Amino acid sequence: MNAETALNVIKEGDAEILIQDSKNVFYNPVQEFNRDLSVAVLTHYAAEHHKRIMDSRKKTLMGDKLLTAGAKFEEGVTILEAFSATGLRSIRYAREVPGVKRVLANDISELAVKSITANIAHNQVQGLVSTSHNDAAMVMYEHRKQTERFHCVDLDPYGCPSAFLDGAVQCVRDEGVLLVTCTDMALLCGNTPETCHAKYGAISLKSKACHEMALRIVLQCIESHANRYGRYIVPLLSVSADFYVRVFVRVRTSAAACKQSVSKLGMVYQCVGCDVVNLQPLMTGGARGAESQAKLSLPHGPPVTQLCQHCSHRHHVGGPIWIGPLHDVEFAINVLKVVKLGAFATQPRMEGVLTVILEELPDVPLYYSLERLCAVVHCETMPMLAFRSALLNTGHRVSFSHACRQSIKTDAPAEVVWDVVRHWVRTHPVRSERLVGAAAAILGKKPATSIDMTTVPEANPPSRQLKLVRFQENPRRHWGPGTRSNTCVQGENKIEKSKRNQGKRKRKDVSKGSSPVQKTRCAQKEEEVVD
Predict the structure, then answer these.
(1) Residues 6 or more apart from 83 whose CB is under 8 A from it?
(2) Domains of the chain: which residue ranges?
(3) Strand ranges for 211-299 from DSSP E
(4) pLDDT digits (tens, 9 = 90+) for 495-510
(5) CB of 82 within 8 A of CB of 139?
(6) CATH match for 7-258+323-332 among 3.40.190.80, 3.30.70.1230, 1.10.10.10, 3.40.50.150
(7) pLDDT of residue 286
């Protein structure tokens, strides 16, 4: 790289990367939380892997050489970063994760690979990080042999990763970890359900619980790809943050367990009036053990009547989604220990999110939104502690979800949830002119449950008492997934054609039936775009 070339040095964690002023290589500082969390997860996984090696040799961890970050460990973990861009993530893995044998930083862009090579030399990790200039799918397909598989595969593409999951689930070793990021939240959250089905094999629904549903759609998609090769996944950590979802799953091989996977998937029936959700497993029965040979059976359904029993509206049907646990509690506890012992820039946020994850009810899919419950009946929003206390006083469990500030995750039936709302409306009445539609149907029914809204200590979880950073505010103005790198493999002519075609439909619609003046302006704008 020429010394005259203007460079910006960006420091993150223990790594430094060099960015040219042209900004041709993609780098998004907003995703530092994503990278910090990935380093913490792989740090625990590498220690876990090392312990398995020592146990197999009947040695203790202290009896062998201790793991050191930045040093090569011949029996350590191998990592593939399929979309490396600047190489920042790969360099951080090499410098911050103890017990690494090799990190392969791949990118399809020649300019990106040059940037990665320069950054590797700048950080002096040539012995740990190597580069690959290839299509991500091809790299993964070339490492499908048992002896060539990676312990960890990191997929963080721009948008949807589904095109790369087939190769990813094949090139991960048994007990290996697959790390997947999805930034196409618009379709995962129900804006374009037909596109979601085309890319993820599931229909997404619009609701306040859409961010958790996005996680469950992604897990379902990964599971379906793994099952085709006699493999299955165990979710270790599933996080919804900012403009993306990030899942960490363990990959295992078992034909018997694959047959049980269908019992972890279900369809979603969502009322269009009150948003109450009912789940229908694709198959029922069997046992909880991954190696169970218990036979599954077809369920009876649907789980709802033609009209919602609460508000008499119809239902939308979505899915299938993952209805099993989103997290491995023990794994999350160990990652939290790593975070507390580390020195991450986003450490306060990581502690807060992981603490809320540990407080979540693991066996309750999806959640209610307190503000949505009150909006349906047009009443004043009740205090969160009062609502949680009311559910706890009925003998049911309740928790937050890390995916939503106003979330109510509970095992209480919908009837009990609406009885709490009815009890609140008694002292906070709704104006008569607003009692129409779903509100009239719900509030017109008599409560069937005795409600006590006396505040109980359990209603205030530890994460709230300690005032942890549980729900991050927008990190900066105009934050988001950023602009896709323009160092793509297509030629300059294609790029110019793409720019020239931007907004062509709008210009075409305006020109139809327009006045001569409007047509002239349209033509002028088109000439400006071409220039």
Answers:
(1) 106, 107, 136, 155, 156, 157, 158
(2) 7-258+323-332, 367-455, 492-530
(3) 231-241, 244-253, 265-271, 277-281, 284-285, 296-297
(4) 555 566 767 666 666 5
(5) yes
(6) 3.40.50.150
(7) 64
